[in-house]
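We were asked to recover a plausible sequence for a given structure. The inputs and outputs are reproduced exactly as logged, with field labels preserved.

PROBLEM: sequence recovery
POSITIONS: 558
GIVEN STRUCTURE:
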């Protein structure tokens, strides 16, 4: 400070004159502390004559680093995202903000740098390809102070994982007796998160396994027969997912269940009817064939196989024969089961003689009563033989039938029940084509699809049929088939016995002339067969007697 006159007093202020500090007019003042923001410093002086002057300087002080941090919506570092954009939001605290700069890097280069001077706080980089990206944000103030966020890294992945079954995996709807389910697959995914295998059946989750490392096969045991459904799914760290098709594995290691139903005659049934009807139930999901076999003591009477679900069978029989029958079931894997072999005896109905004697004296040895279902008739035991009609229509949860003892024993020891509980059931019959004409008759099989157990609506299963005239080779007697004779081979007796050259007349009635010829030839053939057989039996018996006599004679000579 200088003056033309002698200086008197000097002083200064560093707060715009609010506070003054006196100093020597010839001294220097250092280490004064300014405040953050705007500062005005002043210096004053006066001389001995009372003259005064002032000098001031104003400046701005900013030594505070700006504050910056990521805001709402910014993804955390280290994530994988199934998207093609990156959104960044920041929060800034700075009075003297100059610029905010957003920078985005890929694995090798800076690919975008955007600066704002208008207090913008967000940026959204779009159209990015899959890959790894790193970004940060820097803020600068007017004093040259700056601050930068930490760097964050994101992985963009919009590609669905590739997942396929391998050849060792069973094809869909595989049917097997193997109680092990093996599955393997191929996965193509750089950012694998989890692999999940799920196996379920019709009622429950059998297995649910999740793997967090690369796994390409799975094996599990199956506890029971049934259908199992399985698939494999894979997730990547970006949330992309892929799943294989759902496949079915059908495990069948049990034999089919087959059992006779109530309408089937009991074992060793004796009947006066020339036919047999029996039915059965089956529990099997994979039926291949159902086979019914009926034999007698010398021959196979019938051997029928069904590919579709069949639960009934009916065939005509000869009287006075013993027949044996059963039902077998095979599934598609070779498991099989067979019912018990039952015996069915047909007899010509007996005719009672001297029925008035049935109440006569039984003698003095009576006591005790005899066997079940039998009584003495003319000093012989009368065995009950019950025949029952079909069950009536179900009414008020009950149905009835009528049972008659065809031997008229007068006892009811073995009489079957004539009433049973039921639910309302409407018969629905389905019949096969008529069979070949045999013995002037044809039969067919009819099944109640609803299995009501009644036969009130059952269609007829027999009808008459006629033999063709086979002599002139011309259809001149109402024949439907090709007449024998003429250019055809000559007719044979066996044609009539075996049913060849047989057709049904259109009007359902046999030509009387034809029937006469057929009956005559049939009876003649049977008579010839019986006489021939009897002669052979007598010849054989006589030969055996001669052999025995010759053998005895040789022993005596010894």
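RECOVERED SEQUENCE:
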């Amino acid at each position: 400070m200088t003056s033309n006159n002698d200086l008197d007093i000097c002083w200064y202020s560093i707060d715009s004159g609010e506070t003054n500090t006196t100093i020597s007019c010839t001294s220097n003042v250092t280490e004064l502390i300014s405040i953050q923001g705007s500062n005005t410093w002043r210096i004053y002086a006066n001389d001995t004559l009372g003259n005064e002057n002032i000098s001031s300087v104003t400046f701005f002080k900013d030594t505070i680093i700006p504050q910056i941090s990521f805001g709402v919506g910014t993804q955390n570092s280290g994530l994988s995202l199934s998207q093609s954009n990156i959104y960044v939001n920041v929060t800034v605290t700075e009075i003297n903000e100059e610029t905010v700069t957003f920078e985005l890097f890929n694995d090798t280069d800076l690919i975008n740098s955007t600066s704002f001077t208008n207090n913008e706080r967000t940026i959204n980089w779009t159209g990015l390809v899959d890959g790894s990206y790193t970004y940060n944000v820097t803020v600068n103030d007017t004093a040259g102070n700056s601050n930068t966020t930490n760097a964050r890294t994101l992985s963009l992945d919009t590609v669905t994982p590739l997942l396929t079954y391998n050849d060792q995996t069973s094809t869909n709807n595989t049917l097997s007796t193997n109680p092990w389910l093996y599955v393997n697959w191929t996965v193509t995914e750089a950012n694998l998160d989890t692999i999940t295998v799920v196996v379920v059946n019709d009622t429950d989750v059998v297995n649910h396994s999740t793997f967090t490392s690369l796994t390409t096969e799975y094996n599990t045991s199956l506890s029971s027969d049934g259908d199992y459904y399985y698939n494999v799914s894979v997730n990547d760290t970006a949330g992309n997912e892929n799943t294989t098709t759902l496949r079915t594995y059908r495990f069948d290691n049990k034999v089919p269940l087959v059992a006779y139903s109530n309408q089937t005659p009991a074992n060793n049934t004796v009947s006066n009817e020339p036919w047999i009807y029996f039915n059965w139930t089956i529990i099997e999901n994979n039926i291949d064939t159902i086979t019914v076999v009926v034999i007698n003591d010398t021959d196979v009477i019938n051997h029928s196989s069904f590919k579709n679900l069949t639960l009934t069978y009916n065939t005509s029989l000869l009287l006075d024969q013993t027949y044996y029958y059963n039902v077998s079931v095979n599934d598609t894997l070779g498991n099989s089961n067979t019912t018990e072999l039952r015996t069915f005896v047909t007899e010509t109905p007996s005719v009672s003689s001297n029925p008035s004697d049935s109440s006569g004296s039984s003698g003095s040895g009576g006591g005790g009563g005899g066997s079940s279902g039998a009584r003495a008739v003319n000093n012989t035991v009368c065995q009950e033989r019950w025949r029952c009609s079909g069950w009536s229509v179900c009414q008020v949860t009950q149905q009835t039938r009528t049972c008659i003892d065809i031997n008229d024993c007068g006892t009811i020891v073995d009489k079957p029940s004539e009433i049973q509980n039921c639910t309302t059931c409407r018969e629905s019959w389905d019949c096969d084509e008529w069979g070949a004409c045999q013995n002037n008759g044809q039969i067919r099989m009819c099944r109640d699809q609803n299995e009501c157990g009644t036969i009130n609506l059952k269609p007829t299963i027999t009808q008459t049929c006629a033999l063709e005239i086979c002599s002139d080779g011309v259809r001149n007697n109402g024949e439907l088939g090709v007449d024998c004779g003429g250019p055809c081979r000559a007719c044979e007796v066996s044609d009539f016995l075996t049913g060849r050259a047989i057709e049904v007349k259109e009007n359902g009635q046999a030509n009387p002339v034809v029937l006469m010829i057929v009956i005559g030839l049939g009876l003649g053939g049977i008579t010839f067969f019986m006489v021939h057989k009897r002669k052979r039996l007598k010849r054989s018996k006589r030969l055996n007697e001669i052999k025995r006599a010759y053998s005895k004679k040789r022993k005596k000579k010894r």
